[in-house]
Amino acid sequence: MAVLFVGLSPLETGRVVAAEPARKAEPVEVAATIRLSVDEAIAVFLKQNLDLLISQFGIDYAKGQQITAALFPNPYLTLGTVGSFLKQQLGQPSNITRSGQVITMVQQLFEMAGKRGYRIESADFGTQSAEANFEDAVRQLGFTVKDVYYRVQLAQRRLALAEENRDRFARILEVNTIRFKKGYIAEVDLIRIRLQIIDFQSQVIQYIQEADIARADLRQLLRLSPLTQVELTTDLDYKPIDPDITSLRRVALEIRPDIRAKRHTQSQRVADLKLANAYRYPDVTIGAGYGVQGAVGPDLQNQGMVNVGVPLPLFNRNQGGIMQAEVGVQQAEADLMKTINQVENEVDVAYRNLSQSRRLVETYRAGVLDDARLTLTIVERAYERGGATILDLLDAARTSRTIQLNYIESLYNYQHNFFMLESAVGKGLTS
Fold it and tell me: Which one of 9, 58, 168, 395 has the lowest number of neighbouring Cβ atoms within 10 Å?
């Protein structure tokens, strides 16, 4: 990482210190420059992206639910007193309390029908689903990082082309200004060249703005400061790839994290249904206690006690909870089938788009791009010798620019579709 330092010369520093000896030096914000390949950008993204951090909290939350599901109910402690009273009779001394007792009891709820085990099973599947959702967030946001990375490269390639055309016509304007003063060309030709330069300059400004916006998006994804200057080292280039669509479909259904998340969710809903059915059976509460009598009374014996409590399932047998759990299973199954169908179509569409964009890039690289550049060079030389008009030159420049821009955009579209196919499959592809 290179850092640009802005400061004062030694002489100027001495003057500042002499003028203000009591002021403390304040830190000066400097703009750092970081060079990133596309793989390095992904590494920074995985380390610093806030959306991933938020998604990762979901795993910790699910693990907390796992801990809660495995806990046993707390015992219940009861402490009470019992006393007997006798009314005061006429002519007798006051002695209201005849006997007293202190009772201590501990009760414990025992869950029946495997409820605790079903809760643990459901929470386990919930954690696995959260982990798969985190992987899916990495998949989706990773595609976004790569796409934004190459949007910056696209804007820079467009900018370079616009600057090349602007500088080319600036040289033509310089030569033709001399020719105009000597009366070799008409003033209208000179005006047309000036207008063309202005058009190219407006394109330069437009592409600078597009590059700045794309860089800002990339810095946001990588959680970099706005002061950070990002230099990209991976070029927008063509690397042909022709994968097997049958293999891609199979791999996608096996490893796509969103499909795994939906499968875990389905399993969790099945466990919830088992738990709902288990709630038809009442839990048992067992208690044990000990009573200590006071010193006054006919009987000084202490007492021990044991009780068992069971709710009678006469009305509520969790009918509503069972119905809701059954609907949850059906919803999870439908959601899983929907996701599978969506993944199959995503893979198919991404594969077709990649194939078409590959054919277009190869068409340009077969000679069309070179022909457009050569045509502009030939017409420019002919114009300098008087063998072509200014309209011929402008038309050739427009055609050449259009072909080169279309080629650059076809390169970006090919790379975009390549990343789309990677995202649809759920793994990186060898290009």
Answer: 9
